[in-house]
Amino acid sequence: MRRKQIIILITLAILLPIANATNWKIMYMINDATFMHPGQPLILGGSLYQAGVYEVNYVKYSFYIIALNTSTGSLEFAKELIFNLNETRIWGRGIGAGQFGILRKSSNGDIIAVFLAKRIKSSFSATIVAKLKESGEVEWAKYYLLPTTSKDKVTPRELMPVDVLVASDGIYLLGKSVDNPKSVTVLIKISNDGDVIWARSYMNLDTGTIPTGIDLTSNGDIIMLVNTRKPLLLWLDKDGNITKVVGFDFGMPAKAEKVYVAENRIYVIGHLRPELFEPFIVVLDEDGNLIWAKRYPNSGYDFVSIASDVEYLYILGKSGSTLQEGKEGYERRVWVLSLDKEGNPRWNRVTGDSIVMNELGGMAVDEYIYVTYYRNALRGAGVVFMAIGKDGHVPCPSNSPTLIAEQLDVKIKDVKPPSVSDIKVEVYQLDARSRELDISEAIPCENVKTTTTKQSTLSPTKSPTETKSKTTTSNEEIIKILTKTQTSKEYTKTTSQKSPSNTQSPKREGTCGPGIFILIPLVLLSKRKR
């Protein structure tokens, strides 16, 4: 009997940690940061990377990159990226119509990082493109400016990054500029070393063009999504020449948010606006023929990002239209949902966290659906990372609003293409380095409180940072938050059992996974053998 009990205990010791490796939710805040602006995440080699800009006293805007373990949410590193041009520091921007940070896998398996930056001695925007190692160290970084030549002087123009496509022949940087008073779409082809191969602008003289996304078809065509009075989808060759353009006529105002290509299908998501926002999906084949189109009449909701696996579609969105602001009970929330490949709803979840406008970082899909966003400062500020099960299980309280798919009447037709012009881009090599960031953490969930502080290194280093932690325990589900040191004190007022070691990471508890189903039959087996 004793021998069988030992076998049971060993089995539990092996299986229970595996069973508990489920959903997780973690929030980070850099100690010196007043605000953080998250960018689009990337999954690479078992790590979840996310980069963006953080503010210090609303004056300085620095660049950061964070890496987590995808299975547990454990912090691997958090670094500030420092860029200098001729000993002059290049800062980020906290406002703008572009993305604060975009990460893509490079052609050789490293990371291509793109940041919204500030021009030197100007309030205009520029773009930084950098190649990073998986450790967060910078291999090279370049600074891209867009000048405009008038009759008697050269005046700066905006260059705000919107999306990035990494292909076998180079990097395609999609950006937004302004040719007063209209918006201009800019596409720059960059070599794998950061040199400009060509740069072009795409302009509708009547309405301007606002870019929102870029992707690649299976036969090598570049697909670019822009908004004019109506959304347009452009097919380009590898030299940036337009080969085909189709327009979307919904019979009402609409904005296209993102284009995504998978399994020879082109997915376009966005929102209609009969009154408040209503999200839509239009699916085309790679020749531009309509396959299906559906709308989801959830008033005030919007689709922002889309990804897929072999079976299903996964969408990141937000609830709360700007037209609803100021009304009683209004909050902007994170919305995650899954559809089948014909657009029929499987599940949808609205999380309990409120977010500020345009502070959704993005989504990446692997074993889980990984979502990043900035959480409202009034409830403990920071960038939240969340691993959501593909069955819709969310590691925090959530709502499931009614979601109905309806057929959408849309006319797809060839339209006049925007005018295309070659443009000049100034490129500068940057000196770059990184340093470890100071990060503290708290875990508020009912009476669960944990605080951890990571000490920074003032010079670049690869040595691990020291960790000090105080942990309290509870049977409640744990939500882990890294927040400011001055804020974390209020999370540690309750007293409970301390962790056995100051260097031990706080325990990450998931939901009740299969472990309980392993435990029950083994206990029954033990009793039977007696």
UniProtKB/TrEMBL annotation:
Polar residues bias: start-end ranges: 483-505
Region described as Disordered: 450-512
Protein name, per record: CGP-CTERM sorting domain-containing protein
Organism name: Pyrococcus abyssi (strain GE5 / Orsay)
Bias (Low complexity): 450-474
